[in-house]
Design goal:
Strand order of the largest sheet: 5-4-9-10
Bound molecules: arginine
CATH topology of one domain: Isoleucyl-tRNA Synthetase, Domain 1
Subcellular location: Cytoplasm
Structural class: alpha/beta
Family: Belongs to the class-I aminoacyl-tRNA synthetase family.
Keywords: Aminoacyl-tRNA synthetase, ATP-binding, Cytoplasm, Ligase, Nucleotide-binding, Protein biosynthesis
Radius of gyration: 29 Å
Distance between the termini: 37 Å
InterPro entries: Arg-tRNA-ligase, Arg-tRNA-synth_N, Arg-tRNA-synth_N_sf, ArgRS_core, DALR_anticod-bd, Rossmann-like_a/b/a_fold, tRNAsynth_Ia_anticodon-bd
Main location: cytoplasm
Strand content: 5-15%
Length: about 550
């Protein structure tokens, strides 16, 4: 609305430009001593055949400056200084009225499917799956706030030749009690042992192939074991999801598409898209500059790609999505490019609404974490360690905190989530628990602690916050501008599928508040105290909203 005032003031004296053109041209100066909006006059230089700084100097005095504190020509710009009092008033009122909904807006409507988390059965959930889970969840929250309806789909890796190996291994060395007690640990043990022994006994691989064939053919024993491995693994995954506070709308994984691939392959045949190459069935994607998509192996077994094609079509038919997102590591970039290209070749225009949302790796001391090479990091352990570390710090800072366990959970888990989301999703980053759970620096606990500090200020007085009282405190200016910008920040995060935009914003707001807090006596009993309290309460509200979008709780005390 303040931008509109600037646009209108300029439109009144610039008949040669439309309001939209003016709005697009307006810039935000880097520092507030250059004003709050800057209009660059170079755009007029051609039309007016004059130097930009001359245009600025002539234009500025003609503008009706009544709604503003000042309008000044500086070089090739006309700078607008907003009226701080009315800006403060409007901003605090808006946040007070909207509350938890401050930042909500409609950028679009309709279902958006989000393929997220998607770990592999009988294997530990990796840090990569954690990234997919928390990024996908944050995107779901951000999409909800911007008008869409997210559908969170956990495309479990629950089918494939590895189940043949696992069945053989279980029958040789497995025990029901072991699997029930600690499913993924033991299933992984059997699987690793299978690989070790198969190195010298190649006949084990034949046996595994035979068991997988049985599974594909619906053999009762094989099916029962498979279903049981899946169920036990899922129990364990669900424990992690519960800790993270994340749920799903669907757990339809790879196996769900077993009976849905034939029609896909048939369509490919009908459309003359399938070719045989070295015994395998492929779709040539040369015109997309991509390697061919592998649809069927020479032994007739279907592949990851075939399932994904079936899944994409199933999702379109089931949800009629307006967008379909796949939050999957950057190493699968080509796979999703191929998938989209094949769907396009099949004549599905909606393939354009499919977006792979890639992300980088989590490293430890600069090295990639891997499930195979033994340096696996067990996610549940990481979360538990983070909670313990949070507990220790809280005990030091706030020994008599009532619901200390719940707060430690929110802080520990929140720290891990925040650390993941503050990095631009494509960047790789190092994970070091001590760094992640610190209460200072660019961390989740720092933002949470700042919010708790704001709350404790509000509790120290009987005076109630009042957004309608005038706030003349100019040292709050940076904070007010940040607060007013929050809805734009949400929009930017939504358009770029980038939760880090929100996390970075929360850090900036927390820093701005801590600076204000260090320099201003907030609780002085003067006429503006209710307005200062409204400022503090707005900060807490917006920090809480921002953290909620990331999937992080904001404890009132800590
Ligand atoms: N299970 C796969 C993996 O761990 C990820 C699946 C991603 N989703 C998909 N529709 N392909 O690598």
């Amino acid at each position: 609305m303040f931008k509109d005032q600037v646009v209108q003031a300029l439109a009144a004296v610039l008949p040669e430009l439309s309001a939209d053109q003016i709005s697009d041209l307006l810039e935000t100066p880097k520092t507030s001593d250059l004003g709050d909006y800057a209009f660059p006059t170079f755009a007029l230089a051609k039309i007016k055949r004059m130097a930009p700084n001359k245009i600025a100097a002539e234009l500025a005095p003609t503008i009706d400056a009544t709604p503003f504190e000042a309008v000044k020509a500086v070089g090739g710009y006309v700078n607008f200084f907003l009226d701080k009092m009315s800006f403060a008033h409007a901003t605090l009122m808006a946040i007070d009225e909207a509350g938890d909904n401050f930042g909500s807006q409609t950028l679009g409507v309709g279902d958006v499917t989000i393929d997220m988390s998607s770990p592999n059965i009988a294997k530990p959930m990796s840090m990569g799956h954690l990234r997919s889970t928390v990024i996908g969840n944050a995107l779901a929250n951000i999409l909800t706030k911007t008008g869409y309806t997210p559908i969170k789909i956990n495309h479990l890796g629950d089918w494939g030749t590895q189940f043949g190996k696992l069945i053989v291994a279980y029958k040789l060395w497995g025990s029901e009690e072991e699997v029930k007690a600690d499913p993924i640990k033991h299933l992984l043990e059997y699987y690793v042992r299978f690989h070790e022994e198969a190195e010298t006994k190649p006949e084990m691989d034949d046996e595994a192939r035979a068991w997988f064939k049985k599974l594909e053919d619906g053999d009762p024993e094989a099916t029962k074991l498979w279903a049981w491995f899946r169920e036990e693994s899922l129990k364990e995954f669900n424990r992690i999801y519960a800790k993270l506070g994340i749920d799903f709308d669907s757990y339809n994984g790879e196996a769900f598409y077993n009976d849905k691939m034939d029609p896909v392959v048939q369509t490919l045949v009908d459309k003359h898209l399938l070719q045989t190459s070295q015994g395998a069935e492929i779709v040539d994607l040369e015109k997309y500059n991509l390697n061919p998509a592998l649809i069927k192996k020479s032994d007739g077994a279907t592949l990851y790609m075939t399932r994904d094609l079936a899944a994409a079509i199933y999702r379109k038919e089931t949800y009629d999505f307006v967008q379909s997102l796949y939050v999957v590591g950057n190493e699968q970039r080509e796979h999703f490019e191929q998938m989209k290209a094949v769907l396009k070749e099949m004549g599905y225009d909606w393939a354009d609404e499919i977006h792979h949302i890639p992300f980088g790796l989590i490293t430890k001391d600069g090295k990639k974490l891997s499930t195979r090479k033994g340096n696996i990091v067990l996610l549940e352990q990481v979360l538990n360690d983070a909670i313990d570390l949070a507990k220790k710090q809280i005990a030091e800072k706030h020994p008599d905190l009532e619901n200390a366990d719940q707060v430690a959970h929110d802080v520990g888990v929140g720290a891990v989530i925040f650390h993941d989301l503050k990095n631009e999703r494509l960047d790789s980053f190092d994970f070091n628990l001590e760094e992640v759970v610190r209460f200072e620096g660019e961390t989740g606990p720092y933002v949470q602690y700042t919010n708790a500090r704001a709350n404790s200020i509000l509790k120290k007085t009987d005076v109630s916050p009042a957004a309608e009282v005038a706030l003349s405190d100019t040292s709050a200016w940076d904070i007010l501008k940040l607060l007013a910008d929050y809805p734009n920040v949400v929009a930017r995060a939504a358009k770029a599928y980038e939760p880090s935009v929100i996390a970075k914003y929360a850090l900036r707001l927390a820093k701005a508040f801590n600076k204000y807090y260090a320099n201003t006596k907030i609780l002085v009993d003067d006429a503006e105290l209710p307005a200062r309290l409204a400022l503090v309460s707005s900060i807490s509200q917006v920090l809480t909203n921002a953290l909620a979008l990331l999937g992080v709780n904001a404890p009132a005390e800590m």
